[in-house]
Amino acid sequence: MIGNRIKACRFPVDFSMIKEESYMAELSLLLEFYENMYKSRRFDERLWEAYTTGKPLGMTHLGIGEEAAGTGTMKVFRPADIVCPHHRSHAHQLMRGCDLKKLLSETLLKSTGVCQGKAGEAHFMDVSKNLYVLGGTLGPCFTVPVGFAYHFKHEGEGNIAVAYSGDGCTCEGPFYEGINMAAAFKLPLLMIIQNNFFAISEDFRKMTGLQSLSTRAAGFGIPGATVENGNDVEAVYNATKAAADYVRAGNGPMILEIKTWRQMGHAPNEAGTKYKDPDEQAMWMKRDPIGLLTTKLTERYGVTAKTLTEIQKKVEQELDEAWTYAEAAPYSQPEAAMEHIYAEC
Ligand SMILES: Cc1ncc(C[n+]2csc(CCOP(=O)(O)OP(=O)(O)O)c2C)c(N)n1
Ligand SMILES: [Mg+2]
Question: Which of 121, 143, 169 to mutate to test the pocket of ligand 1 (most atoms within 8 A of CB)?
Fold first, then answer.
């Protein structure tokens, strides 16, 4: 039962009644999750290797250890929903189907990137996928998905807006203004807090008086729920499905918190982690999301090591091709700076 692992506060669905299998389709879905999580892990590890060997990179934030959060949530949303991941979101972008070569090119600030290398990671926007990264001015950017949700409410076609935030960003004022407006107008907004415990070097339990950030929902008169082990992709998927169904049904917004763990430093150039409790780090390393899923696949479903190795080889080949493509591509030229500022009518 996922009820043991998900704490709900004023959530209208009784999680204790949802069996793990109720929303989970079948093995093929878990294998899809595995492929995406492995791809995201290797994407980030290669970026780390590039940084440590002095290759030129744009600003990047690695999601190593947080792959289940992006993968399990993103699978739930429809193509017409508008999703706004935060700055640590390669797993989210890959699961949404963003092109690997264009994603890597954008990270390397090349003209073959989805935004011609002018956005980089923080402002990555793939309009064809209805995906807009909110990674620039953290806080004010949360009012943007409220606008999308406002549009969807009036459009009336059952689409929802999804905003992601880290734990730290939930301490910014516009976060409250945005959610308050969404609550007041009963907008179809799902707010996902990807709580990796740290905002750069600050532990959220020192920044706030809270143990769980979804409890903030009570202050807006909306439901909130927390996935306590957000490294379990199955639990993440099930909870997100229930939450998205609730918002899509016209009940107004809700907050879903996914507790996970940033295994590395904040960013490659801020790689130190001395501020972390070593016992807590060790506990979460044992809960590595890919490790948990591998155990589940092999022990519960009898998936062989050979099958997983084949997936890994396929992913490595795709990544090799993407790196060759992106590294060979030119940077945007100065004259391109004046393009794509206004919509061309
Ligand atoms: C308004 C604003 N203040 C500060 C920053 C710099 N900054 C970038 S990421 C970050 C930490 C965010 O922490 P959290 O929300 O927990 O997300 P995480 O990085 O842990 O995924 C900060 C302070 C920013 N981008 N915008
Ligand atoms: Mg954080």
Answer: 169
pTM here? Answer: 0.94
Does residue 168 line the site of ligand 1, with CB under 6 A? Answer: yes
* CATH of 2-338 among 3.40.109.10, 3.40.50.300, 3.40.50.1980, 3.40.50.970: 3.40.50.970
Protein residue with its CA nearest to atom 11 in ligand 1: 199
Helix-helix angle 233-246:27-52, to 10 degrees = 110
Hey, where are the domains in the chain? 2-338
- Helix (H) / strand (E) containing 38: helix 27-52
Ligand 1 in reach of 241 Cβ (< 6 A): no
pLDDT digit string, tens, across residues 12-52: 454 544 444 444 557 899 999 999 999 999 999 999 999 99
Span 214-253, pLDDT tens digits: 999 999 999 999 999 999 999 999 999 999 999 999 999 9
For residue 298, how far is its CA from the centre of ligand 1 (angstroms)?
37
Query: Could you tell me the sign of the dihedral formed by the alpha carbons of 158, 215, 139, 165, in that order?
Result: negative
